[in-house]
Amino acid sequence: MENKKETDARNNSVESASDSGPHLEHGIIKVRKHPKWFMMLQFFLCILVPTLFLAIYITEHNRSLHAAKSEITSWRLDTSTNYTMDLNYWKKQTTSEDRHYYFNISTVVEAAPDGIVRNLTVINGQYPGPLVEANAGDTLYIHVQNQMQDDPTTIHCHGLLFNQGQSFNDGAAYINQCPIPPNGGKYTYEIKLDENQWGTYWYHSHYGAQYADGVFGPLVIHSAKERALIDDYDEDIVIMVNDYYHDMANDYLPEYLGPDNENTEPTPDDGLIEGTNKFDYDSATYVVPNGDSRNVTYVNSTLPVINLDKEKKYRFRLINAGFFAPINFGIDKHVLEIIEADGTNTEKATMDSIDMSVGQRYSFFLQKPDEELSHYWMRARFDTFCFAEDNSNLNPEIDAIVTYEKNSNVDPATESWPYNGGDVQCRDLNQTLLKSLDQKVPLVSNGSTKPDVIIELDVSFLIGAYQLDRGYLNDMTYTALKNSSTMYELAFNAENNPIRVLGDSSLQTKNDGQYLLNFDKRGQIVDLVLNNYDDGAHPFHMHGHKFWVLTVGDKGYFKEEYYDPNVGKMNFDNAIARDVVGISGFGYAVLRFVVDNPGVWPFHCHIGWHIESGLMMQINELQSEYSNWSTYPQSWADLCRAIE
Ligand SMILES: *[C@@H]1O[C@H](CO)[C@@H](O)[C@H](O)[C@H]1NC(C)=O
Ligand SMILES: *[C@@H]1O[C@H](CO)[C@@H](O)[C@H](O)[C@H]1NC(C)=O
Ligand SMILES: *[C@@H]1O[C@H](CO)[C@@H](O)[C@H](O)[C@H]1NC(C)=O
Ligand SMILES: *[C@@H]1O[C@H](CO)[C@@H](O)[C@H](O)[C@H]1NC(C)=O
Ligand SMILES: *[C@@H]1O[C@H](CO)[C@@H](O)[C@H](O)[C@H]1NC(C)=O
Ligand SMILES: *[C@@H]1O[C@H](CO)[C@@H](O)[C@H](O)[C@H]1NC(C)=O
Ligand SMILES: *[C@@H]1O[C@H](CO)[C@@H](O)[C@H](O)[C@H]1NC(C)=O
Ligand SMILES: *[C@@H]1O[C@H](CO)[C@@H](O)[C@H](O)[C@H]1NC(C)=O
Ligand SMILES: *[C@@H]1O[C@H](CO)[C@@H](O)[C@H](O)[C@H]1NC(C)=O
Ligand SMILES: [Cu+2]
């Protein structure tokens, strides 16, 4: 694909298009025959006074323009510093610490991450969200204050296990907690990090479609145990990529969820790397999202620039923090040496580029090319075959500049790895290329490849009542509870609630819009067999666990005979353990996990639009244990009592 980037691409100043200075209307001063004193008075009144006022006006106006300018830039998080970690500091951390982060969530009016001005919902007034870091074994505190006027919120730390009796702090609204109310509502997430959990994660709002509007950011868990497993490196940098819309997510929902819409997801307008991009705006051809009549304002924005040092070895932590779109990511002429997927270290796998679904993460070491240029393009590409609709605003290639020269202003002239505009079948990376370094697939004690329990889940979109198209797992579409959360009901009203009473022996329950898989035996090994009867791809995510990806099929349905190790279809040894895997349209996957983490765990497609259309269920794990806990924070229970 050609690069149509202008040479002003790295203009670092963000200027407002409306900064055109005061417009002065000059009045005509008529001169008549008058006495000298009158002329002097007239001169004073007509010339000096206005000039004086004008001078004051210009000074004041410049001052307010200046203020407006800094307002325009102050919403931007400086990712060039915040997403680069201080490795020396983390290497010195040897004892368990408490790490406190403070998140004020509010709406910023008129920010422009890619140049198009829109409103965002953000953390601490900035976009994108700040990097959260801790060490394995630490306790992480995220103190949230909801400063929005109308919208509730929650924070979910994506991929963390919450496996020390803290499922209630997982953050999924109406499942693990009642949301934090607007107008000053507060909640502190206390998360005890497992000694054996490390790697690359992220956090995002798990309330409605809110994270599309800006409530998300990277989360990294450092670990000495991990450092002992992998090669040493000099620098550690988060690269966060996300698809991006020019309107608030809620403005798309009425049409998307309305009648006669057969799951036509809104196609993004753009994509960002490190929270920035430079949108190629042309007022003549630009299509305002949702047919909105508002006037579009465009201000100059910048391409991301990643400054590297030739002498150093880099670990990049790549996150697809998007809402919908999978990406194909690479850096021209460089090879990516993959060492981690979703927090699991992998045997080294080298690739020119990598496909990743929303929610997934990879760490890679960067292998430099032999030919030494100073600038290269980093590219994240959307496969337009994954979109149901065209969006003429979208340039499906999102670029950043990788430079080995400090403060340089040159556009790279490099050519990309082979790419044919996207795979006609929207698919995830071939998961058999990834092998866990130290996570063996769990087997039942008699050594059989089959698990204790197999659950078959059929994925589909169906048109039901009122011509509404909804996502289904088996025959259930999720609808959120209105006044409570699953975990509150199952723990506090264990013997008497409309969802599932303790002692009910059904493996599957489907009450009150809540489809639960109920596991009450510690140590049981469970396989979820997903068959996708929909033509679209779905990246499935499990909370509270990593699952082993025993097999993924691009086409067809899973057959029981694949459990025979001689068939060679499944990996029962070192399959990758992760928390998101993409399943192609009409494809399948088998995901294994162990019943060992008490709590309620959402299992859902990570496409934000699909969560809203109900493609979500819950794993209800060891209810007999968690309903006995005496550790529920009062502040947590109060969130539900507030809306009773
Ligand atoms: C953006 O910046 C370029 C170069 O600095 C300038 O020529 C152009 O007029 C600016 N555009 C807007 C809309 O401000
Ligand atoms: C990023 O920002 C957060 C929140 O302000 C801060 O706690 C953290 O130390 C910053 N990280 C780095 C590496 O600058
Ligand atoms: C942003 O929000 C303000 C205040 O609610 C509103 O007046 C304005 O129209 C919004 N801007 C956009 C681009 O939606
Ligand atoms: C959050 O808002 C409160 C109340 O306005 C303020 O005191 C506090 O400093 C803010 N914290 C951050 C991290 O911005
Ligand atoms: C858009 O701009 C035009 C011309 O400046 C103005 O007349 C109109 O009221 C504006 N519309 C909105 C919705 O702000
Ligand atoms: C995935 O990779 C494996 C191992 O290289 C290969 O055998 C298999 O054919 C690949 N699958 C697809 C769909 O390309
Ligand atoms: C091994 O255990 C599994 C799961 O508990 C069971 O289904 C299977 O029948 C057992 N196989 C043998 C050979 O005992
Ligand atoms: C939960 O508490 C009840 C009553 O104290 C007790 O009978 C039961 O054994 C406990 N269950 C578990 C799994 O600890
Ligand atoms: C929520 O409403 C349901 C049904 O109306 C009721 O059974 C349940 O107890 C309520 N929960 C709370 C926390 O008020
Ligand atoms: Cu989906």
Automatic annotation (TrEMBL):
InterPro entries: Cu-oxidase-like_N, Cu-oxidase_2nd, Cu-oxidase_C, Cu-oxidase_fam, Cu_oxidase_CS, Cu_oxidase_Cu_BS, Cupredoxin. Residues 10-19 have a biased composition (Polar residues). The keyword Metal-binding applies. The lineage of its organism: Eukaryota, Fungi, Dikarya, Ascomycota, Saccharomycotina. This is LAFE_0D00474g1_1. One of its GO terms (molecular function) is copper ion binding. Residues 110-225, 235-405, 519-622 form the Plastocyanin-like domain. GO terms for biological process: iron ion transport. It comes from the Eukaryota. Keywords: Copper, Ion transport, Iron, Iron transport, Membrane, Metal-binding, Oxidoreductase, Transmembrane, Transmembrane helix, Transport. Belongs to the multicopper oxidase family. It comes from Lachancea fermentati. The chain crosses the membrane at residues 37-58. Residues 1-22 are annotated as: Disordered.
